[in-house]
Design goal:
GO terms for molecular function: aldehyde-lyase activity; magnesium ion binding. By secondary structure, the chain is α/β, with parallel strands linked by helices. The protein is 35% helix and 13% strand. The longest helix has 27 residues.
């Protein structure tokens, strides 16, 4: 792959013939963009068109206009202009560039660009370089059986669809991390600039290093209007807007065009000169960094001010269109229905002079592509925009090196913080893969126990340093960890890092992962489209999220921090057997190690790992955990008292670390009563989903072997009970399931009381099991358990800590373990906020 020689200045102004070429590119791209929105036939407006239905020869007319006019014109001509100039820059400088289209509604610009640079025909040879190919290209846009209207993954060079606004800069900054030769051409829509995620992502210039990372060039596409309202940044004064960006650490340049009768060549000349000036400034930043300069630079950015819908008719039906919100989508909605609107459309298309751009046979004239970049430097071919091409597998340490010695000490050994063990493993993953793996977190890396990374690397930071180094622990201008108190930024930076061929993980408090619900939604859709339809997009590394500080242990924060519902969003993405989502609930540290290894090896997935960070026992050896992980669920023979093939009285099942601990204690109590128990643990939630909905789940035969054919099942689940009922609907024996989950009850309280409030404590579970089996026979025992729950609550109220009968229990076969309060609980809570 040839990605040129980066950061090379030119000694002369841009040649006039290149400016003329950029104008040809712009006109061709604009014509194709309008054509995609409006035309289904006669793509070059011939007067002697042979109608494909009737065989008759006719003039260009309303019959050539699509019945449904779908798409967005308003942002597209500005995007076409910027893409033309980006291509010129790449051609002249040999610079590796990825184009991030924040206004994703500019989809027609993206497809036009990839057709012009040749990459579209490489993946779609049916779009031939002739009139028939151009007609197919136009017709497919936003058309049944065709392509989406956004800059979607189906388009070469797309890396950021922009279906939801707000993530341009976070994706761009993620892409340039550890990518020192890459220039991210990041176009931000002025409507997008009003979103929360985008507003905070301006700050990310303080978390990159011009020596070790690439450069992001933000271009604010200031066309003045959203769907129906003006934009804030377009209405404030130039002085106020520039002061804002200077305050964000940028050197803003303002470019205006399209508001008077200036010729297009003059406009191109001015912008090319500005772009050269800006690029020279970027080169100086890179070369000063190479020379050892450490001061944070003011990175250049461009405020690109043009009319919305630039080059469309200025007025339609007597109402202002170019430079108005009316240009946002389809300015001529009745082009098929009324001759007046069709006449305006025809004039609009003719204004781009297509006869100067296409030959009689419908092929592009060579001069339209004369100065396009070549090979991998083409925007549609840059491997950074198809990151699987350059992705390399991680070098992973042996997880046995981090194993908690359950095989020697017995099931239920120790009091280990599972996420800390995972953090130790992840730190060594980082050590072995310093340039292709990163850790992200919203000020919670240490809180979520991943701080072992700081023994190897720092948090990358360039926003000033305190004179007292004790207040700036692990901060430096280089590092493999980035922390910014924004879940949006963590998610967006990691997405950009992955989409350009690298690997990573970020951690979040479980309740606040909802902040990025819609981002996860968008990334899942990108993966789904790729898996289903786009074989030329090579697999990227999976998006790994550790969700700790979870619902069951929020001793410091209480009800506001208690929400396990993110899992339900993920389940919505598990359709069509795309398998782009995996949901893990490791019960202990050793299983979390196995899960981490599997997640770091996987591709094209979103891996959500729900794991606690408080001290807890470890129940399985690494080898046992790996066997369970293969299927996603397994019988824990040591936790029950029935032999293989023997019918249990009840199946006790668990999914999640705290529910597993509580169900094990309940199993212990029930076995003491002579009840035959089979114990099942689920680590991959999707393993139990109905097999007809998920071909990677357990078969019905495997499901029945675990949960029985006609036996009651008591299931303790980390999140909401309805999630389990929905997953197993249609499974054998599903009517016999009784699920305990989070009941939306919580407070800042003790661990036992949190469980008691939600009927998840061992005493409630054991009582319910007895009620299922024979409420009359076990009435006395049920009452004992229920009464003790109230007694234990009152004990906590009176003393401020939990009852010893709760804290001092441990599993029966632990070798040499002291039955003390430390054996099963922790007096510490979260060290957050």
């Amino acid at each position: 792959m040839d990605l040129g020689t980066p950061w090379k200045k030119l000694d002369a102004p841009v040649a006039e013939e290149e400016l003329a070429w950029v104008d040809k590119y712009w006109r061709a791209a604009n014509y194709m963009s309008v054509g995609q929105i409006y035309l289904r036939s006669n793509p070059l407006m011939r007067s002697d068109w042979v109608d494909e239905k009737t065989g008759e020869t006719r003039d260009f007319g309303r019959a050539d206009v699509k019945h449904r006019l779908v798409g967005h014109w308003g942002t597209t001509p500005g995007i076409n202009f910027l893409m033309g100039h980006a291509n010129r820059l790449i051609h002249d400088h040999g610079q590796s560039v990825v184009f991030f289209m924040g206004p994703g509604h500019g989809g027609p610009a993206g497809t036009s660009q990839s057709l012009l640079d040749g990459t579209y025909r490489e993946i779609r040879p049916d779009i031939t370089d002739d009139e028939a190919g151009l007609q197919k290209f136009f017709r497919q846009f936003s058309y049944p059986g065709g392509i989406p209207s956004h800059f979607a993954p189906e388009t070469p060079g797309s890396i950021h669809e922009g279906g939801e606004l707000g993530y341009t800069l976070s994706h761009a900054y993620g892409a340039v991390l550890n990518n020192p030769s890459l220039l991210a051409f990041a176009v931000v829509g002025d409507g997008e600039a009003e979103t929360g995620p985008l507003a905070t992502s301006w700050q990310t210039n303080k978390l990159v290093n011009p020596l070790t990372d690439g450069i992001v060039l933000p271009i604010l596409h200031l066309n003045g209007y959203k769907i129906a309202n003006p934009t804030i940044l377009a209405r404030i004064s130039d002085e106020e807007r520039n002061e804002f960006f200077r305050g964000m650490g940028y050197h803003p340049y303002t470019f205006e065009a399209g508001f008077d009768d200036e010729s297009h060549i003059s406009i191109h000349r001015r912008f090319a000169a500005l772009l050269e000036q800006v690029f020279n400034e970027i080169c100086d930043i890179k070369w000063r960094a190479l020379a050892g300069e450490t001061a944070r630079p003011a990175y250049p950015m461009i405020v690109f001010r043009t009319p919305k819908g630039w080059t469309c008719p200025k007025y339609i039906d007597g109402k202002k269109t170019e430079g108005s919100w009316r240009a946002h989508q389809v300015p001529l909605t009745s082009a098929k229905d009324t001759h007046e609107h069709f006449r305006v459309l025809r004039g609009w298309l003719r204004s781009y002079k297509p006869a100067e751009l296409w030959n009689e046979d419908g092929s592009l004239k060579p001069e339209v592509t004369e100065f396009m970049p070549q090979g991998d430097l083409r925007l549609g071919a840059n491997p950074n925009a198809n990151g699987g091409l350059i992705r390399e597998d991680l070098e992973l340490p042996d997880i046995h090196d981090y194993e908690i010695p359950v095989a020697e000490k017995g099931h239920g050994y120790g009091t280990t913080e599972a996420s800390r063990v995972f953090g130790n493993y992840t730190a060594d993953v980082l050590k072995l893969n310093l340039t292709k793996f990163r850790v992200f977190g919203p000020d919670e890396t240490a809180s979520n126990r991943l701080q072992a990374a700081y023994k190897l690397t720092d948090k990358q930071w360039d926003a000033g340093f305190n004179a007292d180094p004790e207040n700036d622990s692990y901060l430096s201008t280089t590092g493999g960890v980035i922390e910014q108190l924004s879940e949006h930024q963590c998610e967006g930076l990691l997405e950009g890092f992955l989409l350009t061929g690298r690997h990573g993980v970020w951690s979040s408090y479980e309740s606040f992962i909802h902040v990025v619900d819609s981002m996860i939604n968008q990334h899942a859709k990108w993966l789904e489209a790729t898996v289903r339809h786009i074989p030329w997009r090579k697999p990227i590394a999976s998006l790994n999220i550790l969700l700790s500080s979870h619902v069951w242990r929020q001793d410091h924060n209480g009800f506001s921090h208690q929400d396990p519902g993110f899992v339900d969003l993920l389940l919505n993405k598990n359709f069509h057997n795309d398998h782009v989502v995996q949901i893990y609930y490791p019960a202990d540290a050793n299983m979390l190690l196995c899960v981490g290894e599997e997640a770091y090896k996987s591709t094209n997935k979103i891996n959500a790992i729900f794991a606690g960070k408080q001290p807890a026992p470890t129940f399985q050896s690494i080898d046992e955990a790996q066997l369970e992980l293969q299927k996603g669920a397994a019988t824990w023979d040591w936790a029950g008292n029935v032999k293989d093939g023997e019918q249990p009285d009840i199946v006790l099942a668990s999914c999640g670390d705290v529910p597993t601990l509580e169900m094990l204690a309940a199993s212990d109590a029930l076995q003491d009563l002579g009840i035959k128990v089979r114990f099942v643990n689920v680590v991959k939630l999707l393993a139990i989903q109905d097999h007809e909905e998920n071909d990677a789940s357990l078969t019905d035969e495997e499901f029945t072997k675990l949960f029985g054919e006609d036996v009651p099942v008591l299931f303790a689940f980390h999140a909401y009970a309805h999630t389990i009922y929905g997953l197993i609907h249609g499974r054998p024996n599903h009517d016999n399931f009784h699920v305990h989950g989070y009941m939306e009850e919580g407070s800042t309280t003790t661990p036992f009381d949190m469980l008691r409030l939600n009927e998840m404590d061992r005493f409630a579970l054991a009582a319910h099991a007895l009620e299922i089996l024979d409420a009359d026979k076990y009435a006395e025992k049920i009452k004992e358990y229920r009464d003790f729950r109230e007694e234990a609550f009152q004990f906590a109220v009176d003393n401020g800590y939990d009852h010893p009968r709760f804290t001092e229990w441990s599993w029966r076969d632990v070798v040499g373990q002291d039955n003390s309060a430390a054996a099963m609980s922790s007096t510490g809570g979260d060290n957050d906020e």
